[in-house]
Amino acid sequence: MANNLQILILAAGKGTRMNSDTPKVLHKVAGSSMIDHVIQKAKVLNPSKITIMINKSLLVLKKQYPNIQLLIQEPQLGTGHAVQIFRKKNRSKNINLLVLYGDNPLIDIDDLKKIKSQLKINDVVIMGFHTQHNSSYGIIIEKNNQVEEIVEFKEASLQQRKITTCNSGIIALSSKALQLVSQIKNNNTKKEFYLTDIVKLAKKYNHKIKVVTAKEEKTALGVNDMNELGMAEKIMQDQYRKKAMKGGVRLVAPETVFLSKDSVFGKNVIIEPYVIIGSKVKIGSDVVIRSFSHLEKCIIKNKVIIGPYARIRPGTVLEDNTKVGNFVEIKNSKINKNSKINHLSYIGDTNMGQNVNIGAGTITCNYDGVKKSKTNIKNGSFVGSNSSLVAPVTLGSNSIIGAGSVITKNVEDNTLALTRSEQKKVKLSMRKKRTK
Ligand code: UD1
Ligand code: MG
Question: Per the structure, how many domains does the chain have?
Fold first, then answer.
């Protein structure tokens, strides 16, 4: 039955409870938007097609996911209305549909696989979960082990609210059950078309209904406000930390290290307390990241030491055996083997050769207020402390820059360059005595 499985991700809701100008599903958890988490998990099920129901503010997704169909729901009259729109667009097709919610980033792939396989022998498969703390979820009402209906929390009686089996929102419908969405009405307190009403309809038509219980309560968390977003971050970080440690990464104080969905680690990686690994960071083997360092969109090769207090920004590649010390910022630069930038420096838009030593306080002046320019530092160069390299500029191989220089012209290979005014000597006897 579930051979032609399509997935519909609902994301058109206004997300009013977020109190934010950013559309709800674009808020990030562990470095990726909530909708991205859902999309990546949906793909694992190998559906024939993925569709996202959006409002106009999410048209930006088109660029990021060119192979995913976007349907606009305007106005948003409820989750049932969203599926009605999907069905109208796909009326003639024989589709088994898995509906996911864009605000449900923690869903578990194994649970989804279970739902997919249950759809082969049922018409409606609901993912339920158990919670003692329901204040918003739909409640799954069962009688004699048969699902009767889902009642939204707001509309549930006090007696019904005592039931601890709740609706995660994830639901799968056979092509037969999908046809029933057109019968969903909006006669409820919110005057919305609730997708959950499909359960009552399916029961009326004697369709087979099954509840699959989520492995863990936390995977069902729907994010509706900033508190729940914070909770989702906490849960997901915990999952990523555990995964990293299982893979051999030493997190000295795991609860203080923040990772991303796509963080990649080699062997023998040590991460000291209070480190943030943003998205798209690839770390090789034998790497130490000292406390209070922040990395994003960068590649760290092997035997590299970073920090404490280092900032590695997008487009940076640190080759083998490089060292980046305290209060150093590197952006869009390649640092080749054995080079060291140990203290208090800014290196931007730079191609640095091998065996280069950058002295404390060196700044690449890459921006003239209008455009960014490149700095080239060739193999074996030595830059004295407190130097400014005004880009575009090239330091030849094995060149030396005298401390405190402002370098505005290219420096040839094997040459010392320095710009420094002469030191004066003034006898103290020439000076008036200080009164105090
Ligand atoms: C929904 C379920 C509830 C379940 C909970 C789980 C319904 C009626 N209720 O409630 O039983 O326990 O999720 O988290 O389905 N959306 C649209 N179009 C709309 C309205 C919503 O695409 O017109 C999208 C939202 O963007 C969101 C998802 O559907 O991603 C769920 O909507 P939301 O308003 O968060 O529903 P809940 O009140 O959480
Ligand atoms: Mg929700």
Answer: 2
